Amino acid sequence: MTPERTGPTTAVATLSGAAFGAAAVLLGAGVVAADWPEGWAAVVCALVLTAIGVTVRAAGSRTEPAASPGTRAAGPRDAVPGDGPSIDKTTTTAPVAASRSRSSLVAAVVVWALAVLAGGIWAATSGGDEDERTGGGTAKGGPTASAKPTASASLDGRPAVAWTVPAVGQKYDTGVGSWGLGSTVVQGRIDGLFAYDAADGSVRWSVPAPTREALCGISPDIEEGIGLVAHGRHDKPCATLVAARTSDGKVMWQRKLAGEGLVKGALAVGGTTAVTAEDGAVRARSTESGEQRWQRKAPKGCEPLALDADATRTLLVEQCGKGARLLALDTRTGTQRWTRDLPVESAATASVVSVSPAVVAVDEADARGTHAFLGFDDKGAPTVSVPLSGPEGVLSASGEVGDGRTVRPLVRDGLLITFAEHESMVPDRVVAYSLKDGRKAWTHDDEGQTMALAAEPDGRVAYLGSDASVTLLDPATGKTATVLKPDTAKLPGISIEPELLTVPGGHVVLNRINMQAEPAAFALR
To answer: Where on the phi/psi map is residue 286: left (φ > 0), alpha (ψ -120 to 50), or beta?
Structure first.
């Protein structure tokens, strides 16, 4: 009897067992995770299982007992007692078994080689397959205004685009502004006031605008947990004033305004006082109850242009004939503290950039007139004048002031910080001016377009780029501190005049104008 060959058989069995275990683990993981292998992973599994079958077949062929020379293989006729001589010739089965064993072994080697090759290709391309499964980092909007979280490419080890809120309204619909409330961001959309959870984009609360009315105004900031919005009908005055509590969206009160309604953009919250310019007067109401506290009627021939307030001071810009002036009022009582004539001799537009220190932007109709940011001390004495157009380019201001893009400049640490259109027709530079002498403090150029400004909690200045990157600058020098650039194949669309808000662990971009169905909001983390 020929001895059985056990050495190769043991090795083959061990290899097959290990391969079978790996394939079983992979398939088992797919069952548990409800995600069966796809692409090259599926090919590798199929080839490994096929190779195991062929290998086992080859091993069986090599261990099949071989007949001794000069004997024949036992057949069914040998089991019949007394049967006559067999017609079968005496044969040897060893050559046939050896041939079958060699064929099976060759097949096993070929299939294993294919499995190894497929495994190498799978390993080399697995990153791309993962990107396809995660959608490249862009969340798709659903049929409602709720956000949809999504996995995405990494940004400092975190999702680059954490969530998006689908586009809202018709083309060219324009929102009115926003508030940053730490872990919540509030957007004034055309269809109402919506608060998003900064972590996942879900709507925490909302104050929908009435049927056939759209939001037409929002206070620049909130104080004591209350903010103001206004809405009105198509081609009608912005004549409904609403105070909303920002913790839960509760409407504290609502007032119908008389006459021509609200002066565009002229509403603010200072402490517990809501201040508005409306129907030829400045009125102050309790933010809690809506009860009127004081009013100041505009002098004959004068009309309010802009205002803003904090808890102690309200700044009001008035046009009186061809001239204009800046007044400081006590927010709590309406008492006039000081007044200062502005260098204006024609019709003007204006916006209040900062209440304390006092900074306003003025742009008059006379081409040779005043087109500048103007600064004043606490007694109303002029301190600086920064032209809206100069060597650094055309500067951006808030509201409809100037020829540059609309952006709310930052005032902090004695600096006025805004954008400038330097090398192109769009802002491509961040520039800072001293509020002590009006001189340029620093500039920072961007290779693309600068889109929105924000103040970081740690004092740095953040701006949004057209590539959805967020650049953090040292406020003292303008030098780059950090660049957060999403590493995704496809980014959410950014409209013109977006807003950038800082939130814990990242930033939220709000698109004010619906140009090409850009998302209403999305988070960068």
So the answer is: beta
pLDDT of residue 115: 63
Burial degree of 148 (CB within 10 A; 0-12, 13-18, 19+): middle
Q: Where are the beta strands (DSSP E) in 377-428?
A: 382-387, 389-390, 393-395, 410-412, 415-421
CA distance 233 to 235: 6
Rg (CA), the chain: 38
Mean pLDDT by 10 residues, the chain (525 residues): 46 48 47 47 56 58 46 41 40 48 60 62 48 33 41 42 91 95 96 96 96 96 97 96 97 96 95 96 97 96 96 97 98 97 97 97 96 97 96 92 91 96 91 96 94 95 93 96 80 91 95 94 91
Report the 10 Å Cβ neighbour count for 372. 24
152 SS3 class:
coil
The position carrying tokens 């799978």 is 122
The reported pLDDT for the residue numbered 442 is 97
DSSP state of 140: P
- Taking phi over 0 as left and psi of -120 to 50 as alpha, with beta for the rest, 23 belongs to alpha
Q: What is the DSSP string of 171-187?
A: TT-B--EEEE-SSEEEE
Q: Are 27 and 42 in contact (CB under 8 A)?
A: no
Distance CA 258, CA 34 (A): 62
C-alpha distances in angstroms, 101 versus 19, 27, 55, 63, 74?
21, 30, 10, 9, 21
Q: Cα(17)–Cα(20) distance, rounded to whole angstroms?
A: 5
Does residue 399 contact residue 406 with C-beta atoms inside 8 Å? yes
Query: 437 Cβ partners below 8 Å, 6+ apart?
Result: 384
What amino acid occupies position 337?
R
Residues 312 and 268 sit within 8 Å (Cβ to Cβ): no
Contact indicator for 54, 61 with CB cutoff of 8 Å? no
For residue 165, count other CB atoms closer than 10 A to its CB.
Answer: 29
What is the 8-class DSSP label of residue 223? B
Eight-state DSSP code of residue 422 = -
**Residues 6 or more apart whose Cβ sits within 8 Å of residue 106:** none
Sort 439 into a burial class: Cβ within 10 Å, 0-12 / 13-18 / 19+.
Answer: exposed
Hey, which bits of 279-322 come out as E strands?
281-286, 292-297, 302-309, 313-320
State if pTM tops 0.85. Answer: no
Q: Tell me how crowded residue 173 is: count the other CB atoms within 10 A of its CB.
A: 16
Instruction: Give me the amino acid identity at 97.
Output: A
Q: Measured between alpha carbons, how far is 238 from 419 in angstroms, rounded to an integer?
A: 30
Q: Can you tell me which residue has the tokens 């400045």? A: 282
Size of the chain, expressed as the number of residues it contains: 525
Listed residue (261, 412, 281, 268) closest to 331, CA to CA:
268
Q: Which residues of 242-281 are buried (b: 16+ CB within 10 A; e: fewer)?
A: bbbbbeebeebbebebeeebbbbbbbbbbebbbbbbbbee
- Residues 313 and 331 sit within 8 Å (Cβ to Cβ): yes
Within 10 angstroms of residue 11's Cβ, the number of other Cβ atoms is 11
One-letter amino acid for residue 268 of the chain: A
